[in-house]
UniProtKB/TrEMBL annotation:
Record-linked PANTHER family: GLUTATHIONE-REGULATED POTASSIUM-EFFLUX SYSTEM ANCILLARY PROTEIN KEFG (PTHR47307)
GO function terms (MF aspect): electron transfer activity; FMN binding; NAD(P)H dehydrogenase (quinone) activity
Matches recorded under Pfam families: Flavodoxin_2
Name of this chain's protein: General stress protein 14
Flavodoxin-like fold domain location: 2-167
Keyword Oxidoreductase annotated: yes
Family annotation (Gene3D superfamilies): 3.40.50.360
SUPFAM superfamilies: Flavoproteins
Annotated source species: Anaerobiospirillum thomasii
Amino acid sequence: MSKVLVISSHTDLENDSLANKIIINTLREKELPEAEYLILDKEYPNRDFDVAKEQERLKSADIIVIATPFFWFDWTSLIQNYIEKIFLHGFSHGTTGNALEGKKVVMSITLGAPAEAYSKDAIGFTLDDLMLNKVKLLSGFCKMRYCGEVVLGDVSYSLRTDSDKAQLIQDRSQEHAKKIAALVNSL
């Protein structure tokens, strides 16, 4: 059985998220209960990462799921900072940096706007252009295998005050978690 590491990169998962919190909780409680969960904003509120601990955590995983909202046309600054501090030359890349070789990477992405808003016609760029190409490049550079993404659009946190819309977000977020688990379990 593959060892799965789920990394939540929301900058305030508990207080400022609806969809991402439901996704992580559904994965943890129902869909991937055997996985290890790293909730970055909880474990490292000051971004003072334990490099050795995180490198060991990554090395022990077979599949890495990065769960991120799409903030300002990219993944969060928290996951970017984590990668900058943990994915060091000699560990993840370079002539001796093969610790992540063969790891499988899956992305879980939430969008506040409908997915169609991130298209060439709408803004001149696609989600691939804005973020996924970077993830694919990072995966290749570190000799990991990019295995795909599950995207959930139209889950703006601002909709949480409307009970009908909040319920719809909850239902769609739980379905999103099932899709992530199905992708992970297919690898």
